[in-house]
Amino acid sequence: MNEHIQSKMADPTRDFHLPRYQEIPDVGLYLEQTAKYIDSYLSPLEDISITGSMISNYVKKKIINNPVKKQYGRDQIASLIFIAIAKSVLSLDNIHMMFEIQRQTYDNATAYNYFCSEFELILHHVFELDQANAKTGAAHNVKKEHGTFSNEKTMLRNMIITVAHKIYLDRYFSLLRDEDTI
Fold it and tell me: Residues 150-160: pLDDT tens digits?
């Protein structure tokens, strides 16, 4: 791949960071505030976003809990960040099932923070931003950092890998169209 295109592809994800559970505001946010807050973190991913109407739909389908006094709390915001990313490769039914599995295995903060770490690590690996992971393999470093794998972690990692590769391919094709280098 041409170095110019590779650099342009990686730029938006170079400093990508999802807020950890403790960083998410614990005061409630109204619908539009919630959508803007989440999109501010997801904007480097370009095609991954969330709107107020999408959030309302997830509440209506009981994928997330109803807002309290029209405000969304930390648990709901963390869930919405996960949904926004996962929905690019999973159906809402499968996302709902993943939440059910997660609730039986880990508390919300642990599950969400693990998801954030994994997503950032794999995204950097796919875009070849982390040379250590590119050389030794992301799976080795994740296993070392987070302990042994479970079926739940394997399922989550496979979803994340799929999303990261989809982001990579979408960005690559977009840049090819923009550069008119086909």
Answer: 888 899 999 99
Enter the pTM of the model: 0.86
Based on the number of CB atoms within 10 Å of its own CB, is 64 exposed (0-12), middle (13-18) or buried (19 or more)? Answer: buried
Cβ–Cβ < 8 Å for 82, 163: no
Among candidate residues 112, 125, 127, the one with its CA nearest the CA of residue 46: 127
Query: Amino acid identity, residue 39?
Result: D
The residues spanned by each domain of the chain are 3-179
- Cα separation, 78 vs 84, in Å, equals 10
> How far, in whole angstroms, is CA 127 from its chain's centroid?
15
For residue range 96-107, what is the model confidence (pLDDT) as tens digits?
999 988 888 889
Q: Is 72 helix (H, G, I), strand (E, B) or coil?
A: strand
